Amino acid sequence: MLMRWTSLTRKKINSAESWESSMKYHNLTCLYLLFFPVLIWSEDAYHSALRLQLQNEYNLTDGNWVLNDTEKKNNAAVNLTNVTRKLLTNAGSEPFTEILELKTSARKSNSWDNAARFATTQPVKKGDVLLLVIWMNSIESDDRYNSVVHKFELATTPYTQSLYQSGSIKPGWRQWLLPFQASVDYPAAGSRYQIDMGYMKGTIQIAGVAVINFGTKYKLSQLPISKHHMEYDGREADAPWREAALARIEQIRKGDLTIKVVNKQGQPIRNARVTADMIRHEFGFGTAIATHWFLTSTADAKTYREKLQDLTGDGRSFNMVVFENALKWDAWESDWEGDKNDVVDIIEWLRSNYIRIRGHCLVWPGTAYLPDKINQNLDNPDYLRDVIYDHIFEEAGHAGVQGAIEEWDVINEMIHNKTLENAFGTQDIYKDWLDWAHEADPAAILYINEYSVISSGGQDTATQTAYKTLLQNLITQGAPIGGLGMQGHMGANFTPPEQVLRVFDQFVDLGLRMSITEYDAVGADKTIAADYMRDILIASFSHPGMTNFLMWGFWDGAHWFDDAPIFNKDWTLKPSGEAFIEWVFKKWWTNADGLTDAQGAFTTRAFYGDYKITATVEGEEKDADLKFDRQSGEILLQLDTANTGVNSNLPPRGFELTPAYPNPFNAATTISYYLPVDDHVQLHIYNLAGERVSALIDEKQKAGSYKIGFNADNLPSGVYFFRLAISNAAFDGKLTLVR
To answer: Is the bond leading into 158 cis (omega within 30 degrees of zero)?
Structure first.
């Protein structure tokens, strides 16, 4: 055994280790043999080598094995559901000797319908800090990769879980390190580590399964977590999907904003200065809120409310929120977070700050989420119908709620929670609930909401299919449904953006509004989470069927897993928060400034949303607040002056972009602008597909006026766009080439 064990420790732990690194394991092995003989003989070589790895790489010592302490015992004891197995011998350089090859023949409705389970042999106390270690390799899949869920849970009801981590397995052996903390006591004979494989059809290999319990010796944050399973396809800087998506955004989220300035006789005013300053997006960018922080006067509560009014530091913030709990049935009737009057007061506060509101949710048809009076009468459909009817009308029609909720999640998670469907024996009840909600509040857009649609690696085709079928049936029945929600709890298993877009495409033909309603990324690496925030925003904003993107909380101090996307507990901004602000409030924001042409018109390419428009002529100013959308026509501003033009030689205030002239043009046009300070300038031309066809300027320029010619001799007739970018802003314009 000594020769076998010491030779194993010479093998590389992973492909990146050198022979020198391997020798460290050999030397440490000898020390372990010398000083810990009792421990050596009670665990096999793999487990001993793993101890050495954790000590050498992460300075972690001690700890007890929660599963069996030998590979052979663990692999022999595995319990399988709808999974076939082969036991193989490892011929590679990895530090394990046995391989379990697991195969699933079909995807299932639930992740746990295909599963491998390893029973615990030692008890775990609430508060203990543990580490799951497992090697994984994907052999074949009906998709690009296989998705699994790792769980540590009670083996019987209520199946309380302290680890729930989904992940995608790619070809090639990789060691997974997943730390977790016990949320309850776990008895030795009644707990398990489980790998769910219900969302995959294919073959994976696992090896070296181990769970080590460090008790309270370390904080959870001191344990390592592997990152390779958080990586996602399409993250690379030059990913083609992202370039195409950004081009779509230019087309579907922007339009030509034209302001015409006239005098009191209705005559156009030339060279009037016009500014168009965006106030908020048309697209919903929002968060879940907890009412507790509106009902207390602590410093955190004050900051919480201030961030909802001013997220960026210059007065801009979310334009939509959803109540996390206050409008759920039990909370509404039991005053979980303030009473009904408190909720109405918060609704009024939100509306006074121009924040749109989603209601969540009128019926959540699972046993754990229903009032006792419902669960106690599941054998009485007539009673259930009357109580649900009364509840929907009372809450959706409540004074201060009715007419104030823009969107209602009427039903939540009905694909996975069928308590009421089973009680009634039909899905027809869902149409009834939507009908009643529409009667109670005719102005609200009615949604149903579901999880595991875009999460779970985008691989839960059973949920996707069942969800779409239900939606199609509701539409066929004439239900007043206006939208569908996809929750978006990603964990650290990020669905590739291209797969997210494919899922969006599956539902867009229904003709309903689509929203990501509950995004977060619990337990993810901060850098990867920031990149994914960028990419999930781009994917969502670029899809023509998408309407909203909401997070499930924005601050760690008010998040169900203390891991929100925007702020840490101390209110410092997370990298993913920086990404959110960068894209939503900088890259996708319009502030335009220029002079009207001879027809009194100023046109700029602008994101759809709410604007403050100002026109100034020789000291006289006229402004207007307006909504700019796809249906907007020319906006008229009439000044109380007889002037028809002003001196165009007056020095401009700040940066100025003059509309291209001539436009439309044949072969050549000129783009003029004024720089108030030295700055780096980029001026590029794009076609309708978002492809760059000309790079005119990319250099540092001195302050002053510039006229840049664009010759289109080599281009076909059509519509083109130019983008002029300086250090802190970007400006767009439309060009029409006519041969």
So the answer is: yes
